[in-house]
Design goal:
single chain, 252 residues, alpha/beta, two-stranded antiparallel ribbon, 5 strands, 46% helix
C-alpha cells in the first residue's frame, strides 16, 4: 500500500507538471484515471472535520460561511525513517511544510489567490467513476433532504461507491438515536435485497436435498399452472406434445 500511495503521488506530480488537472475535456485524462476520495455535503456539514479525522491532522481552515472554496492537492508524507511527517502542495513543488498551522495558512492564501476574498467558489473536479464518495450529513438534519445524498445519487445512483457519514451526533434532538434510525434503514434495505436474491442455500447434505425438492415442487406447481391456463404459455406446451412430438417420432 505504501508503494501504491508513493506511485500515485508521483503520477499526480507528473500530471501537475504537464498541466493535467482533470479539467473538463472531450478526452479522458491521466488525472481522471487516478483513484480518489471525494467528500461532499452541505455548507458546515462537517466535511473538513471528517477529512482531518481520516488523516489524524488538524490542518484545514475554520470560519463562518463557506470556508473551503476551491480544490487543492495536498500530499502528506513521512520521512524515510518514519520519524517526521510533512506536507507538500502540488502548486508549490519541492516545498515541505512541517508546521500544519502553516499548511492551514497556505490553504487560505491560495484560496484567496484563486477565488479572491469575496467568498467566490472555483470550479470543482467531476466525481468520476473511480472516485469513492463520502456523503456527509449532519445527524441533526433530516436525511431525506440531505444535500450529500442528493449529490452522490446523481453520479452514483446505485450507491456502489458511496459511503454515508453522520456528523454532529452531539447536536441531535433529545430522545433521538442516530444509530437506531440507521439500523432500521439498513434492515429494510437488507430485507429487500434478501427477498430479491431468495433464501440462502444450506451447506449440509440434508439442507441441499430439501432445497432441490423445494425447487422441483415449485417447478411442478408452475408447470401445472401453465397447463391449466392460470399462467400464459400452456398452449405452446400442448402444441409440442400434440403436434411436434408425434411428427418427430414419425420422421424417425
Amino acid at each position: 500500500m505504501e508503494n501504491l500511495i508513493s506511485l500515485v503521488n508521483k503520477i499526480q506530480r507528473a500530471c501537475t507538471t504537464l498541466g493535467d488537472h482533470g479539467d473538463a475535456s472531450a478526452l479522458p485524462t491521466l488525472w481522471d484515471s487516478l483513484p480518489s476520495i471525494a467528500v461532499v455535503g452541505g455548507q458546515s456539514s462537517g466535511k473538513s472535520s471528517v477529512l482531518e479525522s481520516i488523516v489524524a491532522k488538524d490542518f484545514l481552515p475554520r470560519g463562518s460561511g463557506i470556508v473551503t472554496r476551491r480544490p487543492l492537492v495536498l500530499q502528506l508524507h513521512k520521512s524515510d525513517d518514519g520519524s517526521r511527517e510533512y506536507a507538500e502542495f502540488l502548486h508549490l513543488p519541492r516545498k515541505r511544510f512541517t508546521d500544519f498551522g502553516a499548511v492551514r495558512k497556505e490553504i487560505q492564501d491560495e484560496t484567496d489567490r484563486e477565488t479572491g476574498r469575496t467568498k467566490q467558489i472555483s470550479s470543482v473536479p467531476n466525481l468520476r467513476s473511480n472516485c469513492i464518495i463520502l456523503a456527509i450529513s449532519p445527524a441533526n438534519q433530516d436525511l431525506a433532504t440531505s444535500d450529500a445524498i442528493k449529490i452522490s445519487r446523481e453520479v452514483d445512483p446505485t450507491g456502489e461507491r458511496t459511503l454515508g457519514v453522520l456528523t454532529k451526533i452531539d447536536l441531535m434532538d433529545k430522545g433521538t438515536d442516530a444509530v437506531d434510525s440507521l439500523i432500521n434503514k439498513t434492515i429494510i434495505e437488507l430485507e429487500t435485497e434478501l427477498s430479491r436474491l431468495g433464501r440462502p442455500i444450506a451447506a449440509d447434505a440434508g439442507g441441499k436435498l430439501y432445497t432441490i425438492m423445494e425447487i422441483c415442487r415449485l417447478f411442478d406447481q408452475n408447470y401445472r399452472e401453465h397447463l391449466d391456463g392460470v399462467r400464459s404459455g400452456g398452449e405452446k406446451v400442448y402444441n409440442v406434445f400434440d403436434n411436434q412430438l408425434p411428427a418427430a417420432l414419425k420422421r424417425s
